[in-house]
Amino acid sequence: MANSKEQILPDNGSRFLTYADHMRRLFGGRVQKLSVDAGFTCPNRDGRVGTGGCTFCLNEAFNPSYCRRVATIKEQIEEGMAFHRNRYRKASKYLAYFQTFSNTYASLSELQRKYAEALSCPGVVGLVIGTRPDCVDDDVLALLTEISTKHFVAVEYGIESCYDATLHRINRGHTFNDAIRAVQLTVDRGLPVGGHFILGLPGESREMLVSQVDAINAMPLTSIKFHQLQVLKGTTLHRQCLSEPQFETSMLHFDIDSYVALVCDIVERLRPDLAIERLAGEVPPRYQAFQERSFRRPDGSLLRNEDIPRLVNIELSRRGSRQGRLYGKTEE
Ligand code: SF4
Prior knowledge:
Layout: H1 19-27, E1 31-36, H2 59-62, H3 73-87, E2 93-98, H4 108-119, E3 124-131, H5 138-147, E4 152-160, H6 164-169, H7 176-188, E5 193-199, H8 206-211, H9 213-218, E6 223-228, H10 236-243, H11 245-249, H12 256-269, E7 275-278, H13 307-319
Parallel strand pairs: 1-2, 2-3, 3-4, 4-5, 5-6, 6-7
Helix pairs in contact: 12-13
The protein binds iron/sulfur cluster.
The site of iron/sulfur cluster has 11 residues, from loops.
């Protein structure tokens, strides 16, 4: 499926293939991801790969409120189901999304136990495992492949950038080739793979962000997430912004119009069969180092995550365009 390069746009008028529609087709109905903090750590923090972590990282800012390390995996999933039942349309199928830190970074027995706990919850039909590209090996992939004989299993890699200089600058601790290798090994096992990218990392120009789409398209990804770089309080990136003026000037600053225009330029070049799961990120304002940079409406109110796909659709419609219109074409 990942390489069919065909796109059947949903009949809801969207000009790009959403992950929700992709999953609806797979499962025959709405499937809700429930975030889980399973108590893992990260090799880029504990010294195995590096210390201090990626310069932008503040994991607690990215977790939903029901996702608490003090609760068991089962409790988090039950709270997550209640949270989504209260707020959104009812889903009858759920995926446990191992989101926080590196969710393949433990002994095989611990991984097995934690994945099994999630799958034992009624309504949970599968797992989405978020991890680093340098944090999987044959044994971990064999375990995930075995689970996938009975349940849905997808792996989501934080790739962040296709440029090694950027990955080095943000203390990522792996290269883009590591990401290519991990994605391929995982796809070779028959598992669908998602990639996560950040737009606006230090030193990256708008042109670099658009031209890296060719490298993204070349990977056998099934789904993709993008979000704008957000500088969070207390991170290394925040300290660099305050103390090193070159970091500030080496970062793109977006308002909502320039961000939507960039995202549309990217979406137009994306492989048509890539399911787009996210186009922007949103963390609670209390974590934001520069709240004045949040995306806002003309009246000053904050735009929410769900507003961004709508604005991207409006802009693609204005252009008479859609996902993949420029895929495989040289610049017009
Ligand atoms: S972003 Fe992921 S890989 Fe980087 S420090 Fe945070 S948990 Fe570790």
